[in-house]
Amino acid sequence: MSQLFTSKNAERKIFQLAIFQDGIWDMQIGGMIMLFSFYPITRRLLGPGWNAFLILGLLAVWLIICATIKRTVSNPRMGLVKFGQKQKSKVRTMQLIIFGIFLLSTALAISLIMQTFQQPNLGTNVPGWLQNLAMDFVFALVIVAIFSLVSVVFKIWRPFIYGLLFASGLIGTAAVTVYHGTEFQYPFAIAGGIILAIGLILLLRFVRTYQIPAEEA
Amino acid sequence: MANIEAKETELHPLANLDRVIHSPARLMMMTYLYVVESVDFIFLMRLTGLTWGNLSSHLSTLEENEYVNIEKKFIQKKSHTMVNLTDKGRQAFKGYKQLLLQVLTDLPE
């Protein structure tokens, strides 16, 4: 059944076309999560100060690359929209969420490596694995909640799936760190890689679907 | 004669509907323009699914009635058209919505 044409649906369609259609948002998130997979390796090689500098530098480069793709590939095909006040505040909320995700990820990555947070004592009846990963499960739930919020606000399912992937990556990374002590955080790399791949597929589909119009009227 | 016409208008409020907005394509364009500050020509084309010529023709009608403001600029030697709803257009759209609601709300199930 086709969707009713209401102003709410019109607004939703504008958001979907302007922000989510080209896959660049997905690529940003995927790339950011992937950055944390090699955090422990570069930290050992460079030390905490230089490592933070490197990660922030790489993040800035990645965001510039994504912004350039948006400007040169997406904008000529999709055009531009200036949102009204109400929509601007929604976009600002989403930007804050992305920034929050980055801060949270950084804090989590550092905490996982440094083992700074104390796992709560859940009693003797609780299995060992749950005891060891209790805090990580709490962080994972927070991540899923944040991404679900984006899904609810913009009425698209992808952020929710990404939240689940990111949370799985976090639990996997925590388990790998606790039980194997591996430096390369491959669960983060896998989660980020899947999201990045989805973003790339969406971008390719976008480029094929939307040709650059020949000449404006 | 004028009296009869006035009475008919009272009896048929739909006769007062703004015909500039009432066309499906223009109604769709006005709805999109109502919820944003401004859009460029390409974005409006993607939103509505109208062809270049069709969109251009409907935009001209809206511009002639001062419902939209069309601003043409050249960016890197390419023309770039931004469209936004004027105050008159916004008021007309609100009036259209109210009148249509008024007529449709009273319809029996």
SSE blueprint and pairings:
The complex is a heterodimer of chains A (217) and B (109).
Chain A: H1 7-20, H2 24-35, H3 39-46, H4 48-78, E1 81-83, H5 85-114, H6 128-154, H7 158-179, H8 186-209
Helix pairs in contact in A: 2-4, 2-8, 3-4, 5-6, 6-7, 7-8
Chain B: H1 2-11, H2 19-22, H3 24-35, E1 36-40, H4 41-48, H5 52-64, E2 68-75, E3 78-85, H6 87-105
Antiparallel strand pairs in B: 1-3, 2-3
Radius of gyration of chain B: 17 Å
N-to-C order of helices and strands of chain A? HHHHEHHHH
Strand fraction of chain B equals: 15-25%
Helix count of chain A equals 8
Oligomer: heterodimer
CA(first)-CA(last) distance of chain B: 35 Å
Structure write-up:
The complex is a heterodimer of chains A (217) and B (109). Chain A is mainly alpha-helical and 217 residues long. Helix content of chain A is 77%, strand content 1%. Chain A contains eight helices and one strand; from the N terminus they run ααααβαααα. Chain A has helices at 7-20, 24-35, 39-46, 48-78, 85-114, 128-154, 158-179, 186-209; one strand spanning 81-83. Chain B has helices at 2-11, 19-22, 24-35, 41-48, 52-64, 87-105; strands at residues 36-40, 68-75, 78-85. The mean pLDDT of chain B is 85. At the A-B interface, α1, α4 and β1 of A face α3, β1, α4, α5 and β3 of B. β1 (81-83) of chain A pairs antiparallel with β1 of chain B, so a sheet runs across the interface.
